[in-house]
C-alpha cells in the first residue's frame, strides 16, 4: 500500500478548507487524505468555483498515484454551522477532533505522517468543552504522544532554522536560554536531521544570543557562560555543532554552505531571514515527536477565507516535506 499522509483542514472559518481543496489539482508525490467536514468542503468548493470530486476515504483502497480533480476526505462533521471568515467557538472541539483522529491514525499505522492546516488558538480556548488551555498544535501533539520536549524548526528558501526558545517576550529570553536547554534542543535537532531527513552527519550552526555573539563578553556573557560550554559538551558527544556565530552574519551563503541547519536562540533572531527567503513556500516542522508532523507557515487568514485569494503554496511544501521525511527517515 502507498503510504498515506493525513492532512487536517484546521479552523473551518479560515483558509484551511480552501487550500486543502487545491490538493486535488496538485502534482503530489504521495497519497493524501483531508480530515474535515465533507459538506463544508463541498460548500467552499462551490463558492470558490473549484470543481472537485470529494470521495469518501477508504483505508483499504489501493492507489499508486493521486487522481487529478479528486480529493479523498475522511469525514468528521462540524459541531455547528460555519461561515467563512466568522469564528464560531462551538467548533473548537471539532478542530481538536481533527488532530485526535490524525494522531490515532498514525498510532494505528493508517497514516504515515500528519500535515496540519492553520487553526485559531483563541477560539479553541474560548470553546473547549470542559475548559482547559490550548497553546497550539505543537504542545497538544507533544502531550498526546507523551513527548517531553519538542523543537520548532522552519524550512524554506533553502534554509532550515530551529529555535532554542519559541514564543517568549523579548524580556524573558535571556533567562530562558540555559546550557541544559541549548544542549537538549541541539540533540533533538541532530537526531531528527539524521533519522527523519536522512542526513548522515548533520552540521549545525549555532548563533549567539547577543549582538556580535557577545563580542568576547563586552556585549553580554551568555555566550561565554552558557552557549560555548554547551557546544563543547555536544562536540564531545560527536555532534557537529559549531559557533556561537553572530546572527547578522550566519545567514550569509558562505556560512550556510557549511551547515545543514541553523540553531537560533529565539524566534525573531532566526525566522525573519527564513521568511524573507521563502515566505508562502515555507514549512513548520515539529522535531522530537515520535512521528512526522509538518505544517503551513501562516495563520488562518480569516479575511481571505472563501475569497479565492488564499495561496496554498505553503501547504504543498508541507506535504512534500512530510513525504521527504517519511521516505528518507530511518528508525532509531
From TrEMBL:
Biological pathway: Cofactor biosynthesis; pyridoxine 5'-phosphate biosynthesis; pyridoxine 5'-phosphate from D-erythrose 4-phosphate: step 4/5
Record keyword Nucleotide-binding present: no
One Pfam family in the UniProt entry: PdxA
Cofactor(s), names only, from the UniProt record: Zn(2+); Mg(2+); Co(2+)
Residues bound to substrate: 137-138, 275, 284, 293
Keywords attached to this entry: Cobalt, Cytoplasm, Magnesium, Metal-binding, NAD, NADP, Oxidoreductase, Pyridoxine biosynthesis, Zinc
MF (Gene Ontology): 4-hydroxythreonine-4-phosphate dehydrogenase activity
EC main group: oxidoreductase
Free-text remark on how the cofactor is bound: Binds 1 divalent metal cation per subunit. Can use ions such as Zn(2+), Mg(2+) or Co(2+).
InterPro entries: PdxA, PdxA_fam
The keyword Magnesium is assigned to this record: yes
Binding site for a divalent metal cation: 167, 212, 267
Cellular compartment(s): Cytoplasm
Broad class of where this protein is predominantly found: cytoplasm
Catalytic activity field: 4-(phosphooxy)-L-threonine + NAD(+) = 3-amino-2-oxopropyl phosphate + CO2 + NADH
Coiled-coil boundaries: none
Binding partners and assembly: Homodimer.
Family: Belongs to the PdxA family.
Other observations noted: The active site is located at the dimer interface.
Listed name of the protein: 4-hydroxythreonine-4-phosphate dehydrogenase
Encoding gene (name): pdxA
Amino acid at each position: 500500500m502507498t503510504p498515506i499522509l493525513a492532512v487536517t483542514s484546521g479552523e473551518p472559518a479560515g483558509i484551511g478548507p480552501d487550500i486543502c481543496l487545491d490538493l486535488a489539482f496538485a502534482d503530489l508525490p504521495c497519497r493524501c487524505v483531508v480530515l474535515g467536514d465533507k459538506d463544508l468542503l463541498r460548500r467552499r468548493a462551490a463558492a470558490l468555483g473549484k470543481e472537485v470530486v470529494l470521495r469518501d476515504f477508504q483505508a483499504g483502497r489501493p492507489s499508486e498515484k493521486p487522481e487529478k480533480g479528486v480529493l479523498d476526505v475522511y469525514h468528521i462533521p462540524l459541531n455547528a454551522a460555519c461561515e467563512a471568515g466568522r469564528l464560531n467557538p462551538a467548533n473548537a472541539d471539532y478542530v481538536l477532533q481533527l488532530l485526535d483522529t490524525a494522531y490515532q491514525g498514525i498510532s494505528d499505522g493508517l497514516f504515515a505522517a500528519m500535515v496540519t492546516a492553520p487553526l485559531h488558538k483563541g477560539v479553541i480556548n474560548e470553546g473547549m468543552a470542559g475548559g482547559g488551555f490550548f497553546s497550539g498544535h505543537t504542545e497538544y501533539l507533544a502531550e498526546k504522544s507523551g513527548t517531553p520536549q519538542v523543537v520548532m524548526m522552519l524550512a524554506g528558501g533553502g534554509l532550515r532554522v530551529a529555535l532554542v526558545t519559541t514564543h517568549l517576550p523579548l524580556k524573558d529570553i535571556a533567562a530562558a536560554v540555559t546550557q541544559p536547554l541549548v544542549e537538549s534542543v541541539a540533540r533533538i535537532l541532530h537526531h531528527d536531521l539524521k533519522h527523519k531527513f536522512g542526513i548522515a552527519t548533520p552540521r549545525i550552526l549555532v548563533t549567539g544570543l547577543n549582538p556580535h555573539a557577545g563580542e568576547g563578553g563586552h556585549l553580554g556573557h551568555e555566550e561565554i557562560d552558557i552557549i560555548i560550554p554547551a557546544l563543547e559538551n555536544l562536540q564531545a558527544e560527536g555532534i557537529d555543532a559549531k559557533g556561537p556565530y553572530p546572527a547578522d552574519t550566519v545567514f550569509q551563503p558562505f556560512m550556510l554552505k557549511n551547515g545543514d541547519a541553523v540553531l537560533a536562540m529565539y524566534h525573531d533572531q532566526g525566522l525573519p531571514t527564513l521568511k524573507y527567503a521563502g515566505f508562502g513556500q515555507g514549512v513548520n516542522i515539529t522535531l522530537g515527536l515520535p512521528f512526522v508532523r509538518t505544517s503551513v507557515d501562516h495563520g488562518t487568514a480569516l479575511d481571505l477565507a472563501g475569497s479565492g485569494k488564499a495561496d496554498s503554496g505553503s501547504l504543498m511544501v508541507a506535504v512534500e516535506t512530510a513525504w521527504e521525511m517519511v521516505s528518507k527517515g530511518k528508525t532509531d
